[in-house]
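Example S7 (structure tokens).
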């Protein structure tokens, strides 16, 4: 039991180091949701770090992602995983190296669903690494954002249902994830362009991506309408409201929300 407590503490520390945005709503969740969503987020972040890695070549990324996808489909063998990443250990962050730990702190009744969504995500990411992230059509953009963010929505829906039978619409869950991702894309557009990636269909401009974000964030609003559990509602509302306000700031030509605005938004949602 001591190891579990230490691992849980470690998971929250790594979560805080990796994502300020998601750390806030996850830390507000009650047990066992906190550790479930925390471990699920860390599992997905572990593979996301491989897809985004600046030093690994495309072939290595594909090999790692496809092998991880297969490992997650069965009983996850941490020794096999450690052997797989050993040659790249120096380059990989802690969140990726410790994927086995994040799986082990997830409640046994829901861990298979978390592994299933993460496996599908790894597979989809490998496909887009192979395509060199070249997005030609809106369908391509939908496909890419499904794998990197829509699946987060699907996985959260599985977790809510497991926790207290909260049922949500899967399509709206995907839109919720896509909306958050589209705002990230708009925020990081210059940075992505510097590394030669442009997440825009051929005929689109920045204004079209703003519309895409708006459209999907509206689905996010619809998604949370069916959620009655206060704890889950607060969790879902925080990233959604922060995304909407970030979008507004970007439209006004600002880079992001101020820290004060973030804190005020979070406080308002908690006290509703």
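Recovered sequence:
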């Amino acid at each position: 039991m001591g190891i579990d407590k230490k691992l849980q503490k470690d998971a929250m520390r790594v979560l805080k180091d990796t994502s300020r945005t998601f750390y806030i709503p996850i830390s507000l969740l009650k047990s066992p949701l906190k550790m479930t969503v925390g471990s699920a987020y860390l599992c997905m972040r572990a593979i996301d770090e491989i897809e985004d890695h600046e030093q690994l070549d495309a072939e290595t990324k594909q090999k790692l992602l496809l092998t991880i996808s297969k490992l997650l489909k069965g009983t996850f063998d941490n020794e096999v995983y450690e052997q797989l990443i050993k040659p790249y250990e120096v380059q990989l962050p802690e969140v990726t190296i410790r994927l086995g730990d994040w799986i082990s702190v997830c409640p046994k009744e829901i861990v298979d669903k978390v592994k299933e969504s993460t496996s599908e995500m790894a597979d989809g990411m490998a496909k887009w690494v192979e395509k060199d992230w070249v997005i030609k059509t809106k369908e391509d953009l939908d496909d890419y954002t499904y794998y990197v963010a829509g699946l987060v929505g699907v996985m959260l829906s599985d977790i809510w249902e497991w926790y207290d039978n909260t049922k949500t619409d899967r399509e709206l869950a995907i839109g919720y994830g896509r909306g958050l991702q589209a705002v990230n894309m708009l925020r990081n557009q210059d940075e992505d362009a510097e590394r030669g990636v442009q997440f825009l269909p051929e005929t689109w401009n920045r204004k079209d991506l703003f519309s895409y974000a708006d459209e999907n964030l509206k689905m996010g609003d619809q998604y949370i309408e069916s959620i009655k559990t206060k704890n889950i509602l607060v969790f879902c509302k925080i990233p959604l409201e922060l995304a909407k306000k970030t979008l507004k700031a970007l439209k006004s030509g600002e880079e992001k929300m101020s820290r004060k605005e973030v804190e005020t938004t979070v406080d308002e949602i908690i006290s509703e």
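Notes on this example. Residues 133-272 form a domain with the Farnesyl Diphosphate Synthase fold (CATH 1.10.600.10).
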